[in-house]
Design a protein that fits this description.
The protein is an alpha/beta fold and about 170 residues long. The protein has 5 helices and 7 strands. It has a 7-stranded mixed β-sheet with strand order 1-2-7-6-5-3-4, covered by helices on one side. Helix 3 packs across helix 4.
């Protein structure tokens, strides 16, 4: 609903029904949340491989994890799942996604996996949680970014601004 609220025309494809050719007509791509792991998500990794550097991409939850895996990062299982819980997000870098947002804000979590920090990753960590786990990543040269939390959650008090910032970026 936030995307529609920003005036975007939204086309939804299930991850097992994506026609790569049809994605060419889209201006931007949101890799949405979902169950499981990126490797279980059929066309998800194909969409990233075909459109990274070609179209702006925003990954949410599973989408962020898929971006990280695409760039060689490792997924680890949380010792305690974070389903329907609120955590504090701490910005660690400057990125247009978080423009106009306080250094710390609340966000809704629905995940049981997280990306491990890797010093050799090309991706910049732009936000973490209270435990220092990656909560947002961005590529330094192309418009590929993602968040582990859910901007669409009522628990994410800056979610609408995050979506506005992403949609507004030209």
């Amino acid at each position: 609903h936030y995307l529609n609220g920003e005036g975007a025309e939204v086309i939804v494809n299930r991850n097992n029904e994506v026609d790569i050719e049809s994605v060419h007509s889209c201006d931007k791509i949101v890799l949405s949340p979902g169950p499981g792991l990126p490797s279980d998500s059929n066309s998800l990794m194909d969409v990233i491989a075909n459109f990274v550097g070609v179209k702006p991409i925003l990954g949410v939850c599973l989408g962020l994890q898929a971006i990280g895996v695409h760039y060689g990062m490792e997924l680890l299982n949380l010792s305690e799942v974070h389903h329907g819980v609120e955590h504090t997000i701490i910005k660690t870098g400057r990125h247009y996604l978080f423009q106009g947002i306080p250094v710390q804000f609340s966000a809704g979590m629905y995940h049981s996996w997280y990306l491990q920090h890797q010093s050799n990753s090309i991706l910049d960590t732009i936000a973490v949680d209270e435990a220092g786990r990656i909560m947002a990543l961005a590529h330094p040269e192309i418009d590929v970014c993602g968040v582990q939390f859910h901007p669409e959650s009522i628990m994410t008090n800056q979610g609408r601004t995050i979506i506005h910032n992403w949609i507004s970026k030209t």
